[in-house]
């Protein structure tokens, strides 16, 4: 058990590679190819271990003194490159396999269902079919010719609001070739992709029009806390292309939830001030190298009351009975 003691709580940002997906790679389905300890997906090489080890994740949860974790498939499995004809069967493969991988560890592991977000109509259909076995849904940031501002997503926002299914927005990869050097596609690109998604939701008025939406942004919300003041100034000075908003950026950012994974106690304090301590959820990005060595590694600067809020109380509010479904 870690030094925080048994505070309990939930890590909302962990990943698993389900065995059935590895099997699909061994059959070279959907452009995947399995090799010893690596699953090749397009240009990505995804390490199989410990990513496919459910017990390793459960052990980590125990060491962190947590009640459980919210689990999504790793971002390379988000597949905006697939042919439209493959979207339905691939989505079923991912979700059926993740649900199966987590089933034996209920309610410690609570899965996020994958949404093929680049296909709004299929994303709606997928979300409509999800029951209490699912804690929420996860979607990437590569939407093809669309953006999160598109009104083609309005039906999805309705479904997620009505069913109280939280949406975890996690960047897949950045299409910006300028970021190929120095690992910038991750160090800079991931944060910017999340920030672009949030900006589109804000400036399209989504956070005002769908107040029941529960959207969680990965990696501390990217650069949202740092840039929302600039967005506010753009609205205040009627910059070209900006609509009249019922909910201004400084208000809209407080409608999001973000995870705590920022690798900077100082920036976490900024997020507390800008977005609010009731909007931060614990996140580690287990088991990736850019994750945290312990789930609450960034929380050391905070007092015990706020640590408990971020570890536990906020998650219980966001996910409600979905945390205990299947108990």
Question: Quick summary of this structure?
Answer:
The protein is α/β, with parallel strands linked by helices.
CATH class reads Alpha Beta
Strand order of the largest sheet: 1-5-6-7-8-9-10-11
Order of helices and strands: EHEEEHEHEHEHEHHHEHHEHEH
Separation, N- and C-terminal Cα atoms:
23 Å
Tell me, briefly, the overall form. globular
Structural domain count: 1
Overview of the structural elements:
By secondary structure, this protein is α/β, with parallel strands linked by helices. The chain has one domain (10-17, 63-323): Alpha-Beta Barrel (TIM Barrel), CATH 3.20.20. The chain contains 12 helices and 11 strands. Helix 4 runs parallel beside helix 5 (154-163).
Notable traits:
alpha/beta; TIM Barrel; 37% helix; 12 helices; 3-stranded antiparallel β-sheet; 327 residues; 11 strands; single chain
Secondary structure layout:
Elements: E1 10-15, H1 19-26, E2 32-35, E3 38-41, E4 44-47, H2 54-63, E5 68-72, H3 87-103, E6 109-114, H4 120-128, E7 136-139, H5 154-163, E8 167-169, H6 184-187, H7 189-203, H8 206-209, E9 215-217, H9 224-236, H10 249-252, E10 257-259, H11 265-274, E11 280-281, H12 304-319
Parallel strand pairs: 1-5, 5-6, 6-7, 7-8, 8-9, 9-10, 10-11
Antiparallel strand pairs: 2-3, 3-4
Helix pairs in contact: 4-5
């Amino acid at each position: 058990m870690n030094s925080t003691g048994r505070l309990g709580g939930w890590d909302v940002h962990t990943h698993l590679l389900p065995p059935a997906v590895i099997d699909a790679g061994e059959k070279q389905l959907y452009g995947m190819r399995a090799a010893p300890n690596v699953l090749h997906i397009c240009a990505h090489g995804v390490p199989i271990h410990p990513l496919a080890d459910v017990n390793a994740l459960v052990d980590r949860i125990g060491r962190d003194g947590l009640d459980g974790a919210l689990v999504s498939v790793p971002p390379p499995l988000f597949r905006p490159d697939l042919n439209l004809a493959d979207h339905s069967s691939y989505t079923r493969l991912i979700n059926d396999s993740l649900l199966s991988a987590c089933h034996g560890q209920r309610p410690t592991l609570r899965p996020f269902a994958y949404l093929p977000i680049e296909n709004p109509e299929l994303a709606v259909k997928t979300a409509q079919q999800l029951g209490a076995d699912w804690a929420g849904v996860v979607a990437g940031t590569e939407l093809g010719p669309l953006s999160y501002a598109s009104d083609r997503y309005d039906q999805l926002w309705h479904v997620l609001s009505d069913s109280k299914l939280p949406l975890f927005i996690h960047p897949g990869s950045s299409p910006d070739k300028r970021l190929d050097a120095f690992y910038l596609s991750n160090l800079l690109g991931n944060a910017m992709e999340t920030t672009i998604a949030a900006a589109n939701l804000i400036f399209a008025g989504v956070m005002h029009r769908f107040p029941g939406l529960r959207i969680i942004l990965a990696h501390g919300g990217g650069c949202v806390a740092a840039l929302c003041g600039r967005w506010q100034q753009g609205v205040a000075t009627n910059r070209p292309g900006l609509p009249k908003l019922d909910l201004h950026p400084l208000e809209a950012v407080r409608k999001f939830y973000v995870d705590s994974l920022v690798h900077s106690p100082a920036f976490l304090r900024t997020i507390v001030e800008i977005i609010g301590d009731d909007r931060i959820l614990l996140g580690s990005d287990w088991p990736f190298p850019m994750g945290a060595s312990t789930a609450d590694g960034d929380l050391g600067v905070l007092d015990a009351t706020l640590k408990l809020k971020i570890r536990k109380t906020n998650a219980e509010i966001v996910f409600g009975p979905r945390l205990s479904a299947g108990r």
